Amino acid sequence: MTSTPHSLTLLRARTGGPRDDGPKILENVLGWTLVVLLAVFVTRAGLM
Predict the structure, then answer these.
(1) In this predicted model, what pLDDT tens digit does every residue of 3-20 receive, in sequence order?
(2) SS3 helix, strand, coil % of the chain, rounded to 5?
(3) Which of 1, 7, 12, 26 measures 20 to 30 Å from 45, CA to CA?
């Protein structure tokens, strides 16, 4: 009976969620690039 929960955790699929060991600087650079591109788009479209 004790091996059943252990085998179930081994069969559980990884969902691709966030990891702690990822490159944080790349995330920040891409995030700010997206913010700047969105601001340029809004300005060029005359929405602001």
Answers:
(1) 555 555 567 776 776 666
(2) 60, 0, 40
(3) 26
- Please list, in sequence order, all residues whose beta carbon lies within 8 angstroms of the beta carbon of residue 48, skipping any fewer than 6 positions away: 42
Token code pair at residue 3: 């091996």
- Is the predicted pLDDT of residue 34 greater than 80, yes or no? yes
Q: Read off the tokens for 35.
A: 């913010």
Kindly tell me if the per-residue pLDDT of 44 is higher than 70. yes
**CA–CA gap between residue 38 and residue 44 (Å, rounded):** 10
24: alpha, beta or left, given left = phi > 0 and alpha = psi -120 to 50? alpha
Share the mean pLDDT of the chain: 79
